[in-house]
Amino acid sequence: MDARLTMSGVTKHFPGVRALDQVSLTIAAGEIHALLGENGAGKSTLAKIIAGVHPADAGSVALDGKVLGAIDERDAADLGIAIVHQEGSLVGQLSVAENVFAGHAPTRWPGRIDRAAINARTAELIGRLGVAIDPRRRVADLAPAEAQVVEIAKALSRDLRVLVLDEPTAALTLAEANRLFDIVRGLAAGGVAVIYVTHRLAEIFALCHRVTVLKDGQFVGTRDVAGTTTDRLIQMMVGRDVQIDRAAAHPPGAVVLQASGVASLPMVRDMSLTVRAGEIVCLAGLIGAGRTEFCETVFGARRRSAGTVLIGGTALDAREPGQAMRAGIGMVPEDRKQAGLFLDMSVQDNIGVTVAHDLARGLLASDARAAALALRFIAELKIATPSPRQVVGNLSGGNQQKVLIAKWLAMKPRLLIVDEPTRGVDVGARAEIYRLLRNLAADGVALLVVSSDLPEVLTLADRIVVMADGRLAGELAGDGASEADILRLATRATTSLDTRRLDRGAMKRGATA
Amino acid sequence: MTDTRISAPINPGLRLLQTLANSRELTLAVLVGALVVVMTVVYPQNFPTASNLRAVFLNLAPVGILVCGMMLLMIAGTFDLSCGSTLALAGVWAGVAIGWWGWDPVTGSLIGIAVGALCGLVNGLIVTAIGINALIATLGTMAIYRGLTYVTAGTGVTPISDPFANFGRLVDPVFGLAALFWIMLVIALVMGFLTSQTPWFRQYYFIGGNARAAKLSGIRVDRLTLIGFILMGMLAGIAGVLYAARLNSAVVNAGVGIELKVITATVLGGASLKGGEGRILGGILGVIFIALVENAMIINRVGVFWQGIVIGLVLLLAVSLDRFKGNQRA
């Protein structure tokens, strides 16, 4: 095999952080090469340097033996290097074909885009991936899996040599992920070098030839996937053995949250559940089942159209989050960047926002008290930050998540709702977050955890409540439940791709309301 | 260029120097100082005279009052283009109450300020309750309030009344600076104190930083935004009444184009359109800088036609600085 991409001594600094330190890596044509590491290990930074998003501070990148100088994203695209980001790079208002040929559409005199040509070429490219999507459809109307196919077709629209996939299966179902794997295998068979960034170890074993592990910006090692195991990879990632066990069940206390018949149309139709003090209740279900929306309704961030919510036996009619917070409810939202954190503000500001008035001396804000509070949580949750004044946007994903949780612990909640506690968080930080949630429960906090990660549900839950189509689908004891039990309940209602698409539209509308 | 907030611990002396170098306020203060020195050296007869400086301070006062409100709104990630029209409408209503109806100056002034607050309330309701973005909402009310000014008083109210005019002409005995300036100074000090020291006003930074996260953190985003617009309207009302008092005349085209100067000064002072940053002190320094640039143009006998060009360039320059800072962090 000849080396398609060779990186040597690549180093990248961000203010206060060394994101990559002397990383060297060789990827052959036709190879699927996994990049593995905790959050903040430097995977995404490496991917972005390859794709010309960031320039490297030192070191070199060579494509087919030719050293690339300072390149930008356009240069990278022209060289046949494409990156498919987690967030996606498509413009929702434009058609599939316009997106695929964004920036290099063939034109007819006098400079008009040749729509017929791009539609035909797009249909052909997408067809090569074994999928059929009408090139004239608007991207905003596509399901996540279809959008991803369009991203890859966009990469294929040029002479593709290196494809970087950053957490591509995050929004996909199992079947969709398997189809994506087939596509990726096909591309590799055609000589494309594929760099596959992921957290999911199972995918590495299913798909990749070799895997490189990064830790704290440093190269740890490259292994042949065939010659390694999950445990060994985890050990390379965290530098130690990680044990995630079920905690011994402890006797729950009084009922803290009792929701009955809660509705917030169109996503939440009729939902009831109880959470007791000291208990971890996991809310499971498919994407679009209305779990997040149910939590937002309880928290007062969404209008409730029916039902009752009792907190400690007292009716709560929260019309805004402040009211729910006064009743002792905290909510760690799913999307920490959009809905959780103030990324341009300091760790201290973020942690203190829920208790700003308590931190004041009289009418005046007290910087000393806010700093003391932040330092306490930095120590307690082991948040890796040089100081409480560090801008949160510069921290790694796992540390951002800890700041977000600290922000809610600061208000000492009776009920803490945690929506996807470990999304985009690596194995090491994940174990710490589980430990943290368990300790909270042991201290008598009632925990309602929304999670789409079934092993996580089975690890954490004292009780599992399953939601489907906005309704209560069933309840399971945490001990002894299996993934199959949960899936059986979650899929009891019919969820076709079409209704899911409708639901996504409704969620977007709900979010802007 | 390193942002001090995210750099590793370094020795305190260097850190102080870095803070100063990164401070928009300090940069502006140096610019203002440099401008003063240059003008004093080049035009010793015209610039450093008591009458010229008094005129500069008098002229910048209404803009300074508006900047206090605009800075608060821009911290929250929004803005108000209708402030100049609000200023005129408030001045005209004060003029009508005092000059035509014969009410006493205090009540008449309060009427003007109340009209300003009402204009702000309407702006705020359009933005928060209806959900129209601030650009379109206040562009619309800018035209409407100006129209209401013409409808109310046609060509204006001149003269208003002697006691009212006496207040407008009031100067302090020591420096001979107009009451208008001192009122601006008090407003700026109060607003500066509130926005930097009180947790209640600090909530505006969170709204500008991430409105959705602010809402989910229990901050009443809509209510605070509404209050911000009302405060902006009240300040425009105060500026309008004082402007009318100074001229003893409620002029219907008072404050035309003033929003350009106000937003320029606010952005120059460290606010950004995406919100979450800026301080009142910066805004006031921005106002002083623009006032000095205008004064320099007048002393240089640069035609008035050039003023808009220069102010526009200053605005674009300030925004470019902002872009540069944003790039540094990415």
Written account of the structure:
The complex is a heterodimer of chains A (513) and B (330). Chain A has 513 residues and is α/β, with parallel strands linked by helices. Chain A has a 6-stranded mixed beta sheet with strand order 6-9-10-3-11-12, sandwiched between helices. A 6-stranded mixed beta sheet of chain A has the order 18-19-20-15-21-22, sandwiched between helices. A 4-stranded antiparallel beta sheet of chain A has the order 2-1-4-5, with helices on one face. Chain B has a single domain (63-319), classed as Orthogonal Bundle (ABC transporter involved in vitamin B12 uptake, BtuC), CATH 1.10.3470. Chain B is built from 14 helices and no strands. The relative contact order of chain B is 0.18. With 330 residues, chain B is mainly α. Chain B has helices at 12-22, 24-42, 50-75, 83-100, 105-130, 134-153, 162-169, 179-197, 199-209, 211-216, 221-247, 258-268, 280-299, 305-329. The longest helix of chain B is centred in the last third of the chain and has 27 residues, at 221-247. The A-B interface holds A 15-16, 299, 301, 320-322, 325, 331, 333, 338-346, 349, 353-354, 356-357, 359-360, 363-365, 386-387, 389-391, 393-394, 407, 511 and B 2-3, 5-9, 197-200, 202-203, 205-206, 209-210, 212-220, 276-277, 329.
Blueprint of the fold:
The complex is a heterodimer of chains A (513) and B (330).
Chain A: E1 3-14, E2 17-28, E3 32-37, H1 43-50, E4 58-63, E5 66-68, H2 73-78, E6 81-84, H3 96-100, E7 107-108, E8 112-113, H4 115-128, H5 144-156, E9 162-166, H6 174-189, E10 193-197, H7 201-207, E11 210-215, E12 218-224, H8 230-238, E13 255-264, E14 268-276, E15 280-284, H9 291-298, E16 306-311, E17 314-315, H10 321-326, E18 329-332, H11 336-340, H12 347-352, H13 356-359, H14 367-380, H15 397-409, E19 415-419, H16 427-442, E20 446-450, H17 454-460, E21 463-468, E22 471-477, H18 483-490, H19 497-512
Parallel strand pairs in A: 3-10, 3-11, 6-9, 9-10, 15-20, 15-21, 18-19, 19-20
Antiparallel strand pairs in A: 1-2, 1-4, 4-5, 7-8, 11-12, 13-14, 13-16, 16-17, 21-22
Chain B: H1 12-22, H2 24-42, H3 50-75, H4 83-100, H5 105-130, H6 134-153, H7 162-169, H8 179-197, H9 199-209, H10 211-216, H11 221-247, H12 258-268, H13 280-299, H14 305-329
Helix pairs in contact in B: 2-13, 3-8, 3-9, 3-11, 3-12, 3-13, 4-5, 4-6, 4-11, 5-6, 5-11, 7-11, 8-9, 12-13, 12-14, 13-14
